[in-house]
Specification:
The structure holds two protein chains of two kinds.
Chain A lengths: L2 H7 L12 H9 L11 E9 L7 E9 L24 H6 L14 E7 L5 E7 L1 H4 L4 E6 L8 E2 L19 E7 L2 H8 L3 E6 L6 H5 L11 E2 L15 E2 L2 E5 L11 H6 L3 E9 L2 E2 L7 E7 L2 E6 L4 H11 L7 E4 L14 H14 L3 E4 L2 H7 L2 E2 L2 E9 L5 E10 L11 H5 L5 E9 L14 H18 L4 H8 L3 H14 L1 H4 L10 E13 L7 E7 L4 E5 L8 H13 L6 E5 L15 H28 L6 E4 L2 E4 L4 E3 H5 L6 E7 L11 E13 L4 E12 L6 H20 L30 E7 L14 H5 L2 H13 L10 H7 L11
Parallel strand pairs in A: 3-17, 15-16, 20-21, 24-25, 31-32
Antiparallel strand pairs in A: 1-2, 3-7, 4-8, 5-7, 6-9, 10-11, 11-21, 12-19, 13-18, 14-15, 14-17, 19-20, 22-30, 23-24, 23-29, 26-27, 27-28, 30-31
Helix pairs in contact in A: 8-9, 12-21, 16-17, 19-21
Chain B lengths: L5 E4 L3 H7 L4 E4 L3 H9 L6 E4 L9 E4 L2 E4 L5 H6 L1 H6 L1 H9 L3 H6 L2 H6 L47 H8 L3 E5 L4 E5 H4 L18 E8 L6 E7 L10 E10 L2 E10 L6 E2 L1 H7 L6 H11 L12 H16 L8
Parallel strand pairs in B: 1-3, 2-3
Antiparallel strand pairs in B: 4-5, 5-8, 6-7, 6-8, 9-10, 10-11, 11-12
Helix pairs in contact in B: 5-8, 10-11, 11-12
Classes of the chains: A alpha+beta, B alpha+beta.
Chain lengths: 825, 329
């Protein structure tokens, strides 16, 4: 790997400022492959650019392109496979149960391991007695954790009483693990591990943690390492007590102008505090691995969003060469940002496998998943925004406090800094440590929170200056993509007919509509490569370490290869999720499709050239006289054969080409993905129940690659967002610090009957940046919906909801039907 | 993880009873039991599966009674034409419980006898009063889903939707002991915390519920049930109401109103019933009754919001029972 690629892989190294993930985001954006490809030569090419059907339309732009890049693809309407609705490559395997996920892996002689978890939320471990567990007849090994992963660490360990074991900083923190011949035996034996605690005072509420005499989660500055999905605050962020910050604005905007002057020039000012709750990732497959340590190397079956990050972390922990660690993720049961690196499960399972000499399976149970494996931090956003009567946004001031528990990354100012043009912006993001499970990057870290505050304030400002909010957005949003999205969305949704004055319905059930926008960063990871093989029997394989976390990249890989070779996606065998293959990007930050598809196309293009060169020799025609389409090889002179027939003439068993992704074409600049979402709700003002009835979403993601899987991702983002808006809430008991709903019953997730009618549209947004020009969709899909629903609730009732989730208790309190409950927070 | 236990397929009620030695537990649909086993709340030596006993899953009308076998599933009750027409509140209560998958497995007997869903009770990390501990963690803890009546000692809410509806219908239970059969009015069958905080009902460990009997309604009886929950799919109620009205001419001659998710037992709104009796049903009388239904509530720190929900739901359910749609609702 080139140094450049490593930088892109570990974006936060050396310069970790700003908030979780977004620091990484910035580094990734500014860094990709500045030197790579420079010795390949370049050609100047006129490339498709723009949005078909929009006022600005489809035009051309001149760019320097590495000389060996394939020619630009035409727009989607001229393609056969890309940009169409293509069924999921492995859908049949998944719905029939044939697909084997990492948690399904059972190896001969495999042991089952389970964690021993901390009871108290803050304690020094005085002693751990594992002897009874070790004497259990079915136990093969016990491992006591000496280095806890996935959370912030005290920078100066001298500030804390020295201890052999990590300090317990939240209830549920893993302490040790027991490996036995069966899961029941492991659970039995885990109960035999005796832990003596010296408990310490703890704090779980942000308000209390901010107080000067609050118990300290860390008795000095603490910081967290970044993951491949982002994460970690910098080493240079000030910390006072439990409060760490402000993180300097590093979202691409930063502080600018003079906000006080901006407010002075405003005709209307809206000031409010918005609050959001902790959401857990709640992937169906929990965190875990099966680790198989052998003399000749370590093989790990992992539920991960980045096979390379698991390999790299294990290689580092055990001081193994990367070549001796193999990580496989054939199928993956969801991650949403929390599954990067080996983590505690990976590190401990590998230790246990090394100790016992047999494979070890260690997967969290649902409680551990809820306690300890990550969450979306909560937030309190103090927001002040001003605008002129003509709709010009004048100033944004944004001060945000949030807790990622014992982690960092609770910043929320990304949308405020990036969504609208505003001359005067000031943001401060603070992390507040509490004795709660660590936050982790979660589907657009900081953004659903930030959009909830920003887009409600925009809605309120628009009302104050007497302007339709879409017009207000038009005045302040420079994005051509979103302008077009607002236009399409308003028409499909029927905005003009449906948007009435707030509180227009006379009865107890009130309907209303709202709109909100989101913005996310176009992130490119340069560890993106692919090998394409064409076999003598005409079969085709594509190989990469990239993993499919559910977004459907396997299908897209097949599409790209098929398009290039004139075949159908079903003709391509896709082998991904294996670090033995060429490197692949992490699946986080909506970077997978953006990063890997150009590598896939470049490899397919090179393989095609090799293939046609061989066929041309056999056919005794010039190679450039041959073309591939509709499953056939054809020469200019009219000779034609099926792909399979032609391949049978190969002089060697297969031709193969490996290619990597080129750096983004053109001048380096921060680019964005985004979307606009419209929501219609019915609010029962007597019970406080909100039902979302209809959603229209319009999104951009560069060149849309597979409309079917894109739709699915947007559907998923909207559902996860409505679930966030109305239901999900990690609840810790205020008196003990223990989570009271560590399950999927009282931790309420949207169900089938709560799902509205959802309509999804995409624009084609040709950017002339890569050989596919594809972009991502995972994060943008989730960002706007909670804000859109909240705006619709306001439109329905005339009462604004400042806190998530919008439960009946909060709706009734906002409507003045009941006093706000003292402790509902 | 579930501790090992024996499994026994009972052949008859007597066979099952003979196996109930205090450490064995009866298993019907197994829905609630599975959760308890997984959490380690129950550690039985044996599960006595009574689903293998034939003849306990009937629904029949018989000399003034609707007789329901305890193994009838919620799905069957929800769809049964007689129940749907004459005991609408019961059919709707069954229909709105849990999920289709659970309703296909869960029996009405098991639904009545299930243990509470209080998140402190359900967690092995809290040794609460109901489990023999010395405190109710909900009192000064996270109590937004807890009881608003009769909650001083223990603030669970009774979890059974069927209990709410069947209590409103004045159902009776047939209970078979090792030696004798007894009958109990459902309403008196449930145990309030001050009677015994460790149990929700008075079925002895060596007794089996063998039949549920519901008195046949008069020709003027109408009923309705409503469930108010955050989610429509797979959620427990914030409030549920069953209303049974008998009318004589234009006047309500008898009103039965029971609230679920309100108290540790199905909670009869006696004052509300009294305000309706002898009145003509109208928006106004329903409103007055609904107000009366929440009188005397003692909400905890975070659940006062349930009172306006109960009030609205009682009013709407009374009107629905009287075939009067609530205005704009």
């Amino acid at each position: 790997m080139s140094p450049t690629a490593q930088d892109a892989q570990k974006p936060a190294t050396g310069e970790r400022e700003g908030t979780k993930n977004e620091a990484g985001t910035v580094r990734r954006r500014s860094n990709p492959g500045s030197s790579s490809g420079t010795n390949r030569g370049a050609r100047s090419e006129s490339l498709l650019f723009g949005i078909p059907g929009s006022p600005t339309g489809l035009t051309k732009v001149q760019r320097n392109v590495p000389a060996d890049e394939p020619p630009q693809l035409p727009q989607n309407s001229e393609l056969k496979v890309i940009g169409k609705r293509v069924s999921r490559y492995d859908g049949n395997y998944k719905v029939s149960g044939t697909a084997k996920y990492a948690s399904d892996v059972r190896l001969p002689g495999m042991l089952y391991a389970v964690f021993v978890n901390a009871g108290p939320p803050h304690a020094l471990i005085a002693s751990i007695d594992t002897s009874a567990a070790e004497h259990h007849p079915n136990v093969k090994a016990v491992h006591v954790i000496e280095h806890i992963r996935g959370q912030a660490e005290l920078q100066d360990r001298a500030k804390e009483q020295s201890s052999r074991y990590p300090i317990v900083r939240y209830a549920g923190q893993p302490i040790a693990a027991v490996a036995a011949t069966s899961l029941p035996a492991a659970i039995d034996a885990a109960r035999l591990v005796k832990v003596q605690y010296e408990t310490m005072p703890f704090v779980i509420s942000v308000e209390k943690a901010k107080e000067s005499n609050a118990p300290l989660v860390f008795p000095g500055p603490a910081a967290e390492e970044a993951t491949a999905g982002g994460g970690g605050g910098g080493d240079n962020v000030p910390q006072k007590g439990n409060v760490r910050g402000p993180s300097p604005g590093r979202h691409g905007g930063g502080a600018k102008g003079d906000v006080e002057q901006g407010f002075a020039q405003s005709d209307a000012i809206v000031e409010a505090e918005y609050r959001t709750q902790v959401q857990t990732h709640s992937a169906l497959e929990t965190h875990g691995v099966v680790a198989d340590w052998r003399a000749d190397g370590l093989t790990v079956y992992a539920s991960t969003q980045s096979t390379l990050s698991v390999r790299d972390e294990l290689a580092e922990i055990f001081n193994l060469p990367k070549s001796k660690v193999r990580v496989l993720t054939e199928y993956m049961g969801g991650g949403f940002g929390a599954k990067f690196g080996a983590g505690n499960t990976g590190a401990v399972a590998a230790q246990l496998s090394r100790k016992t000499g047999v494979p070890v399976r260690l997967f969290c149970d649902r409680k551990e998943e809820q306690w300890a494996t990550g969450n979306r931090p909560d937030s309190r956003q103090s927001v002040k925004m001003g605008a002129k009567k003509d709709g010009t946004l004048q100033a944004i001031r944004w001060i945000s406090h949030g807790t990622a528990g014992v982690g960092t990354g609770a910043g929320t100012s990304g949308p405020a800094q990036n969504l609208y043009r505003c001359a005067n912006v000031e943001t401060e993001d603070y992390d507040v440590f509490t004795n709660a499970g660590p936050g982790a990057a979660m589907r657009a870290p900081g953004h659903p929170q930030g959009a909830f505050g920003l887009e409600q304030t925009m809605d309120a400002l628009a009302e104050k200056i007497g302007m339709d909010v879409l017009e207000f957005m038009d005045k302040n949003d420079d994005s051509d993509a979103r302008r077009q999205e607002r236009l399409i969305g308003a028409e499909k949704f029927g905005w003009a007919q449906k948007r009435r004055k707030p509180n227009s319905d006379p009865g107890p059930i009130k309907r209303g509509v709202g709109v909100a926008q989101g913005v996310w960063y176009r992130i490119v990871n340069m560890d993106s490569a692919c090998e394409v093989r064409i076999h003598k029997d005409g079969s085709v394989e594509a190989l990469s370490a990239v993993q499919d976390i559910g977004g459907g990249i396997k299908t897209v890989v097949a599409q790209v290869v098929a398009e290039e070779l004139g075949l159908q996606p079903r003709d391509i065998t896709v082998r991904i999720g294996d670090t033995n293959s060429p490197p692949g990007p992490p699946s986080g930050g909506s970077m997978t499709t953006t990063s890997i598809t150009p590598a896939v196309r470049n490899a397919a293009y090179k393989a095609k050239e090799l293939f046609l060169t061989e066929i041309a020799e056999t056919w005794r025609v010039p190679a450039d006289a041959l073309s591939l389409s509709d499953g056939r090889v054809s020469s200019r002179e009219g000779k034609s054969a099926s792909f399979k027939q032609a391949a049978s003439a190969l002089p060697i068993e297969m031709v193969s080409a490996t290619a990597r992704r080129s750096p983004e074409y053109g001048q380096r600049q921060q680019m964005f993905l985004g979307g606009v979402q419209f929501a219609e709700v019915a609010v029962d003002t007597e019970t406080g129940i909100i039902r979302v009835e209809h959603v229209v979403a319009v999104h951009d993601c560069g060149r849309p690659m597979n409309l079917l899987s894109l739709e699915s991702q947007v559907n998923g983002g909207i559902l996860q967002g409505i679930s966030y808006a109305l239901y999900e809430d990690r609840r810790l008991d205020r008196n003990t610090g223990v989570m009271v709903n560590p399950n999927l019953e009282e931790y309420k997730i949207i169900g089938s009957k709560d799902i509205p009618q959802i309509e999804v549209h995409f624009i084609e947004d040709y950017l002339a940046r890569s050989s596919t020009d594809a972009g991502g969709i995972g994060e943008p899909a989730k960002i706007p919906i909670a804000a859109a629903v909240a705006n619709a609730v306001y439109n329905a009732t005339g009462v604004r909801m400042y806190e998530l989730p919008m439960t009946p208790a909060r709706v009734l309190a906002a409507l003045g039907k009941v006093k706000a409950a003292g402790g509902v927070a | 993880m579930i501790a090992p236990f024996e499994w026994s397929n009972a052949q008859s009620v007597q066979d099952a009873l003979s196996q109930l030695d205090g450490k064995a537990v009866v298993k019907a649909g197994g829905v609630d039991l599975m959760d308890r086993l997984k959490e380690g709340l129950d550690v039985p030596s044996r599960l006595v599966n009574i689903r293998t006993i034939s003849g306990l899953d009937y629904i029949k009308e018989d000399s003034g009674w609707l007789r329901i076998g305890p193994l009838v599933t919620l799905a069957t009750i929800a769809e049964h034409p007689v129940i749907r027409e004459h005991y609408t509140a019961l059919a709707d209560a069954a229909l709105h419980a849990a999920t289709p998958q659970i309703r296909n497995m869960a029996t009405v007997g098991g639904n009545l006898l299930q243990r509470p869903r209080c998140w402190y009770f359900r967690s092995d990390q809290f040794h609460c009063l109901r489990k023999g501990g010395d405190r109710c963690f909900a009192q000064d803890g996270e109590n937004e889903y807890h009881a608003v009546f009769d909650n001083e000692l223990c603030a669970i809410v009774h979890p059974s939707a069927a209990a709410c509806a069947l209590t409103a219908f004045d159902a009776k239970l047939q209970i078979q002991g090792k030696k004798a059969m007894r009958e109990a009015a459902l309403e008196n069958f449930f145990v309030r915390p001050e009677q015994d905080v460790t149990r929700e009902h008075s079925l002895a460990p060596d007794e089996i519920l063998t039949e549920i009997r519901v008195p046949a309604p008069s020709s003027t009886t109408r009923s309705a049930y409503s469930k108010i929950a955050q989610k429509e799919s797979f959620d427990w109620p914030l409030a549920e109401i069953a209303v049974v009205l008998e009318q004589r001419g234009e006047v309500i001659s008898k009103a039965s109103i029971v609230m679920g998710a309100a108290a540790p037992v199905p909670w009869r709104a006696k004052t509300a019933q009294e305000t309706l009796t002898g009145k003509r049903l109208s928006e106004e009388t329903a409103r007055v009754a609904a107000k009366a239904a929440i009188q005397g509530a003692t909400p905890l720190s975070e659940n006062a919001y349930k009172l306006p929900i109960f009030e609205a739901a009682v009013r709407r359910t009374i009107l629905a029972a009287g075939n009067m749609e609530a205005r704009n609702a």
